[in-house]
Amino acid sequence: MDVLDFKALLITALIFVPIERLFALHPAQKILRKAFFNDLIYAVFNGVPIAIGIIAAVALSTSTVGRLVPDYIGSTVSSQPVWLQVIEIILIADIGFYLAHRAFHAVPFLWRFHAVHHSIEELDWLAAHRIHPIDQILTKSTSLVPVYLLGFSSPAIGLFALIFHAHALLQHANIKLNIGPLRWLIASPQFHHWHHANEREAYDKNFAGQLSFIDALFGTIYLPGKAVPERYGVDDAIPPTYVEQLAYPLMPKGQSNEAPATRDA
User: Fold this and answer.
1) Which candidate among 20, 124, 209, 237 keeps its CA 20 to 30 Å from the CA of 131?
2) CA 212, CA 206: separation in Å to the nearest integer?
3) Contact partners, residue 188, CB within 8 Å, separation at least 6
């Protein structure tokens, strides 16, 4: 982790920690909550392998499939105003995110990677970082490869990446935030907290990363009024430490249960 990344993490903490204290969804939850330092390790070390994986996926796709895309498409797309490109990227990327995310819940082998993220039992801004690198690489590549193939400009992609990251932190944050009817359009903390809920009625719901209306279109949205989850996590026997969690998806199943089987029980 370089100095710039450390500063970004520190600034993020200075923003979110006070907000979570002032507008806590779960006021009894401590700042140094369960597995805080484990998730801090994810925040410090996960960035490099994830970036390498995504860059490799984009480079491979643009050097192969990308050659089939006519040049005029890229020039037309990149000539649009940056604000319009960002809106288009959010829509295109979130459709890809939804499909990949749903696959990680439906396919048992993929779920073992994604279960690491769902093993979080106390949500806050830092919890957004606990995600297996393979999970993140495949999901983000599914989102971003179409964006690069279509030729969106670098400033627009960079702005989208900033918005996506900030939005992901907000959705995991221990924040009580009521955005009214907009919750059916934009993914809110309530929307994503229900995705993490270890409650039967919320299983396999709310897959979108930024646009909750995508779940509404596919019939996978769950927003029960102003209610919030009481429990988070999974029934799978996920190990507690960073290194063990990285190895977990590739280890013999042992006595742990696959989530799809557990959730359909």
Assistant:
1) 20
2) 7
3) 171, 177, 179, 182, 212
User: Could you tell me the two tokens for 81?
Assistant: 């105003």
Give the three-class secondary structure for 197: strand
Contacts of 208 (CB under 8 A, 6+ apart): 94, 97, 98, 101, 187, 214, 215
d(CA 45, CA 256): 27
| pLDDT tens digits for range 223-260 | 999 899 989 999 989 999 999 999 999 998 764 444 44
Q: Which residue type, as a one-letter code, is found at position 61?
A: S
Instruction: Report DSSP state, residue 230.
Output: S
Name residue 54's amino acid: I
Q: Nearest to residue 229, comparing CAs of 201, 265, 209?
A: 201
Residue 174's nearest CA partner among 117, 125, 232, 225 is: 125
The two three-digit tokens of residue 255, written as one number: 């006595």
CA 50, 104, 178, 161 torsion: positive or negative? Answer: positive
State the first-to-last Cα distance of the chain, in angstroms, to the nearest integer. Answer: 42
Structure tokens at 190: 């309530």
Rounded Cα gap, residues 12 and 146, in angstroms: 29
Residues 41-54 pLDDT 10s:
999 999 999 999 99
